[in-house]
Amino acid sequence: MPSRQLLLSACAATILLAAGWGVRAASKADDTLPGGDTTVIATGRNAFSLPSANLDDEEIKRAVIGNSFFKRNWVEAPASATARDGLGPHFIARSCGGCHGEDGRGQPPHIFNRLGEHEPAVELLIRLSIPGTPALHEGVVPEPTYGDQFNNAAVQGVQPEGQVRIRYTPVAGRFADGRRYTLQQPSYTLTDLNYGPLQRDVMLSPRIAPQLIGMGLLEAIPEADIETNARQQAASAGPVKGQVNRVWDAFAQREMLGRFGWKANVATLAHQTAGAFKGDIGITSSVFNTEACTTAQTDCRNATHGAPKAEDSEIDDKTLEDVVFYQATLAPPARRNASDAQVQRGQWLFQQAQCTACHRPSYVTGPAPFPRLSSKALEGQTI
Question: Where are the alpha helices (DSSP H) in the chain?
Fold first, then answer.
């Protein structure tokens, strides 16, 4: 009789092949391989959902488990699926994959769907804040009634916070060679507010869900290298003067260099993932163990909790760590058409425009901040 270990290995291999994960690794180190030895040769729908090419079998099995909890929907509590209940009370999406479709970048909702209705915002979230000095270890001062982000969905018996409406204004312009173009400038309004008006000086910051490939590699770039880049920019005659952002990390329990989010306001994938589980899906963890309900949201605070005890978390540490591992080991696909003349001219223009002052041509990765949440295979890679 085959052992449980062999059965698990066979199961993992079957899932990977069915998902298109049976791809070959890149064979040489050059600038067509953005992830070094982790790079995969892949195109098509699943190109952003593949594990690093140099993972071992045990790590691939762990990635399969993390992928399951990343992409499958969470459900309302109480439910028979106790490993996946606890959705909400407020939320934006029912799964991580609901925002990061096929592990790629999200998009704003269409103004109207095919039925002529406003499409709900899922892959777009609206951060909220008000002017002032934030509390210790907090990046912003939350809006008092609605908190630090706007959630447009809720479980049964709880009101959603409201809805996001987008209006586009055409903005005409002209390129340097005389060609005309038209851009669409969005403006955002929060409507159908169920807990009263927003504070008058509230600030809205729209955020699109980013793609996830190579996040573990970016996390493994040594802080010293990023700080050196900032010092070199400061000392140069050029206009680019980037600054590092020091932020509090809930997992490390110390201040670290910010890397993730559109404003580099999160230091590690672990913090980013646990924060998104809480803010976007309404799933608590041992690190963020209270629901995102403000004092004005009584129905939210009284909703059923997805754990046996109120103090317990709705996602256990092992499952959360497997989801973090899955994201950390998502492989960048190899560059396509690298020898094409238009691609090469684009690369030259990218350098001429000084984009490379921030987007450095390469780094060499070091150790991950939390080795148990990543793979040794990501270390020492030229990316």
Answer: 4-18, 57-71, 215-219, 223-235, 269-276, 298-301, 317-328, 341-352
- Edge-to-edge strands of the sheet including 124-129? 149-150, 124-129, 203-208
> What is the C-alpha end-to-end distance of the chain, expressed in Å?
44
Residue in this structure with the two tokens 């955002």, named with its chain if needed? 188
Q: What is the pLDDT of residue 370?
A: 98
CA-based angle 107:112:115, to the nearest 5? 125
Neighbouring residues of 314: CB distance < 8 A, sequence distance ≥ 6: 77, 85, 86, 283, 284, 285, 305, 306, 307
Q: What is the pLDDT of residue 305?
A: 86
Residue among 291, 285, 287, 288 at smallest CA distance from 315: 285
Pairwise CA distance, residues 180 & 189, whole Å? 29
The answer to whether the CB of 311 falls within 8 A of the CB of 289 is yes
Q: Which residues neighbour 262 within 8 Å (Cβ) at sequence distance 6 or greater?
A: 207, 208, 210
Angle at 259 between CA 253 and CA 262, to 5 degrees: 120
In this prediction the pTM is: 0.90
For residue 123, give Cα distances in angstroms to 191, 242, 270.
Answer: 18, 28, 20
φ, ψ of residue 248 in degrees (nearest 5): -85, 130
Nearest to 150 by CA among 120, 117, 116, 171: 120
- Find all residues with CB under 8 Å of 296, minimum gap 6, and list them: 144, 145, 195, 196
CA distances from 230 to 139, 247, 259 (A): 21, 16, 14
Structure token pair of residue 243:
């600054």
Q: Please classify residue 143 by burial: count the beta carbons closer than 10 Å to its beta carbon, then call 0-12 exposed, 13-18 middle and 19+ buried.
A: buried
Pair type for strands 203-208 and 246-249: unpaired
Q: Give buried/exposed letters for 58-72 (b at 16+ CB in 10 A, else e).
A: ebbbbbbbbbebbbe
- Residue 260 bridge partners (DSSP): 266
Provide CB contacts within 8 A for 312, sequence distance 6+.
305
Q: Regarding beta strands 254-257 and 246-249, do their DSSP bridges make them parallel or antiparallel, or are they unpaired?
A: antiparallel
* pLDDT value, residue 12: 44
Query: Along the chain (383 residues), what's the average pLDDT of each consecutive run of 10 residues?
Result: 37 42 47 94 95 98 97 91 89 96 91 68 94 92 98 97 94 97 95 97 96 97 96 90 94 97 95 97 96 97 82 92 98 94 95 90 96 98 96
